[in-house]
Every structure is written in C-alpha cells, then in structure tokens.
Amino acid sequence: MESFGVKWTTLQEWVRLWNKGGIESIQVEKPIGRPAKMTDEARDFIVKSVEFTHPETGEKITGKWISAKLKKSSA
Questions:
Q1: 20 falls in which pLDDT band (50, 70, 90)?
Q2: Which burial class, exposed, middle or buried, applies to 67 when counting CB atoms under 10 A from its CB (0-12, 13-18, 19+)?
Q3: What is the helix (H) or strand (E) element at residue 53, kind and residue range?
Q4: pTM for the full predicted model
Q5: pLDDT tens sequence across 2-13
Q6: What is the DSSP code (8-state) at residue 2?
Q7: How confident is the model at residue 48, as a pLDDT?
Q8: Is 47 exposed, middle or buried (CB count within 10 Å of its CB: 0-12, 13-18, 19+)?
Q9: Domain residues of the chain, as ranges?
C-alpha cells in the first residue's frame, strides 16, 4: 500500500470508519499544524537551484535529492 502513498494502518482506519458509518464517516480532515510560510514557487526554485558536493563523500547533493529524501522520511 505504501507504494500508493497510503500506509496500511491508514487503510485499516478507513475500512473501520466505512464499516461504522459508510462514506459519510470518512471525512477529509483539515491538516494539523501551521500553514507553510514558503510558497510553492519558492520551494520549486530552491529544489531546482540547490546543488553542492558533500564534503566527506564527494557525493553531488541537489535540491531534488534532498526533497526526495524528505518525502520518503515523512511517508
């Protein structure tokens, strides 16, 4: 399921809610936390612009690489 961006526990919760009250019981919740201060345009600019070489490994690090790692760790 995680290949679809949904954790197994989330799917189980959806099924539990469906069984409890049908489609009406499955509501999209408002995201918690404060809204992002950075605009999508600014984030895209940074992702496309950042590029440096890791000082210890010599690996090329880019904004796209960082963004992908952050997405994987938050999933």
A1: confident
A2: middle
A3: strand 51-53
A4: 0.39
A5: 566 778 888 888
A6: G
A7: 84
A8: middle
A9: 1-30, 37-75
Query: 61 with 51: CB under 8 angstroms?
Result: yes
- Which amino acid type is present at position 1? M
Secondary structure of the chain in the HEC alphabet? Answer: CHHHCCCHHHHHHHHHHHHHHHHHHCCCCCCCCCCCCCCHHHHHHHHHHCEEECCCCCCEEEHHHHHHHHHHHHC
- Which residue has 């961006």 as its token pair? 5
Structure tokens belonging to residue 70: 């952050």
Residue 75: per-residue pLDDT:
57
pLDDT in tens, 21-73: 877 777 767 777 888 788 888 888 888 888 888 888 888 888 888 878 777 76
Q: How far is CA 22 from CA 1, 5, 8, 19, in A?
A: 22, 23, 19, 6
